[in-house]
Amino acid sequence: MVNVKKITNQILTDVIRKRPANSFKGTYGKIVLIGGSQNFGGAIIMASLAAVYSGAGLVTTITDPSNQTPLHDWLPEAMFVDWNQFEQAEPIIKSADVVVIGPGLGTDPSALTLLTKVFHLVESGQKLVIDGSALTLLASNNLPLPKDSVNILTPHQMEWQRVSGIRIADQTPEKNQAAANQRHAIVVIKSHRTQVYADNHVYENTGGTPAQATGGMGDTLAGMVGGFVAQFKDPQKAVLAAVYSHSAIADKLAEKQYVVLPHQISEALPKFMYKHQAK
């Protein structure tokens, strides 16, 4: 029997450090987010929003050119790179601390080509967050995960079924843990009680509300995971803190709202993190 540990608010002060006076934007990590086809630009914009609002020092969004104007309308802090100009994107990806790929990426041949290129580029010391349609491409093309990066998968249960081969009805902690260990990855399986599998441990979130059941919620979590991992030293604890913060903010908003919109979680992050930083 696997011991499932609860994720509580204790993780916040363990992870969210007080910012030192002599810090600068490089202190808080460089993150690249890749996704957002013409039809799904909102996904990468929401992920980018979450990365910036969670405190990442330097954020670059590599996306379809149709998303440049709406990205900068929502988020002037993010830099933009046209994903058709891969020679410009390549050095930015290689110099990033964290790469998030998948929100709104799509599953067409060009998306697969982009994902494969990114997998070949990432190297030791980098963290790679794989979300959304990148997980579908990973599963349907039997792509091996990069060997040297810290790989973080953020599937919902159907995406995890595709990646792991475990049917939703059979996704027990024991089977999920074995599949996560086999992939040498941190795996965040999103559900009404999200579970995190990392380093042979299983953690279950204690928050979450049906008010979160709306499009873009997972994109926002992927951006938060990227932002937290970019800033805080321990990737496993950073993922746990991001998962907890995502639902804790939503729970608070749901006290007065019928539905919680993903961008509202991002916008609440700076004050939430200030309140829960280490003393």
From TrEMBL:
Keyword Membrane (UniProt): no
Record-listed AMP binding positions: 190-194, 218
Positions annotated to bind (6S)-NADPHX: 43, 104, 156, 219
InterPro entries recorded: Carbohydrate_kinase_pred_CS (IPR017953), CARKD (IPR000631), Ribokinase-like (IPR029056)
Signal peptide: none
CDD domains: YXKO-related
Reactions mediated catalytically: (6S)-NADPHX + ADP = AMP + phosphate + NADPH + H(+); (6S)-NADHX + ADP = AMP + phosphate + NADH + H(+)
EC code(s) of this entry: 4.2.1.136
Gene Ontology biological-process entries: metabolite repair; nicotinamide nucleotide metabolic process
Every YjeF C-terminal domain range: 8-276
Gene3D superfamilies: 3.40.1190.20
Keywords: ATP-binding, Kinase, Lyase, NAD, NADP, Nucleotide-binding, Transferase
A Pfam family annotated for this UniProt entry: Carb_kinase
GO MF term set: ADP-dependent NAD(P)H-hydrate dehydratase activity; ATP binding; kinase activity; NAD(P)HX epimerase activity
Top-level taxon: Bacteria
Cofactor(s) for this UniProt protein: Mg(2+)
Subunit structure and binding partners: Homotetramer.
HAMAP family the record matches: NADHX_dehydratase
Function: Catalyzes the dehydration of the S-form of NAD(P)HX at the expense of ADP, which is converted to AMP. Together with NAD(P)HX epimerase, which catalyzes the epimerization of the S- and R-forms, the enzyme allows the repair of both epimers of NAD(P)HX, a damaged form of NAD(P)H that is a result of enzymatic or heat-dependent hydration.
Family according to the record: Belongs to the NnrD/CARKD family.
Protein known as: ADP-dependent (S)-NAD(P)H-hydrate dehydratase
Organism for this UniProt entry: Lentilactobacillus parakefiri
